[in-house]
Amino acid sequence: MNNIQYLSQFQLMNSLSPEDLLEMDQLTSITVFPKNSLIQTPQTFREGFYFVKKGKLRLYKLSAEGKQFTLDILGEGNVFGELNGLSFGTRDLFIETIGECDICLLDQERAADFLLHHPRFMLSLMEVLGRRIAELTSLAHQLALGDLHHRILHVLLRLAGLFGSGEQDGYVTIGLPLTHQQVAHLAGASREAVSGALQELARQGLIRTGFKSVAVNRDALHNEAWN
């Protein structure tokens, strides 16, 4: 798939004509990052919009004690970054690749000029931003108010919704390598506590676990999460 075909896959690009897509293609640059690359820290933040062409990214913060808390995982077709106050909230975050990633950059100067001449694209970008904020606000509310059991349920449901692939015997596999420590980072808990909670969920038949893999019974998990 060439860059123009790739860019056209983004929902927010629906407002752009083929000529606009060609122009954007000429304005963007692509960088390939190896697995486990730290592509941004709060100190190395650079304004612009970044499009995830291939791979997955983990967005996280560090506590004063140095503990990691994962705020989100972005997959192919997602956008992040900030430009002149239009922000996806990633300025103060660490961003790390989960696997090899191809990232397209529309840098500050080029993005500002493109948005100025394509107001419908600006509106599409704001709609995507609004949905992202609503999703993260909802998840933050659930994580803040729930006990560990329910926090893990909501984390697994979100991951299944974003990266679920296939279904076998009612179970959907989360399509990314997932260790107990990574679930702990997402749920804001210790690895030991999360390991015990995951074992209990598996015993109840709500999930199935393997080496760095989790499959969830989404319907049963949803009923458990909201009861």
TrEMBL record:
Pfam families: cNMP_binding, HTH_Crp_2. InterPro entries: cNMP-bd_dom, cNMP-bd_dom_sf, Env_Response_Regulators, HTH_CRP, RmlC-like_jellyroll, WH-like_DNA-bd_sf, WH_DNA-bd_sf. Residues 12-132 form the Cyclic nucleotide-binding domain. One of its GO terms (cellular component) is cytosol. Keywords: Activator, DNA-binding, Transcription, Transcription regulation. Residues 146-220 form the HTH crp-type domain. It comes from the Bacteria. The keyword Acetylation does not apply. Gene3D superfamilies: Jelly Rolls (2.60.120.10), Winged helix-like DNA-binding domain superfamily/Winged helix DNA-binding domain (1.10.10.10). GO terms for molecular function: DNA binding; DNA-binding transcription factor activity. The keyword Transcription regulation applies. This is cAMP-binding protein. It comes from Paenibacillus donghaensis. The lineage of its organism: Bacteria, Bacillati, Bacillota, Bacilli, Bacillales.
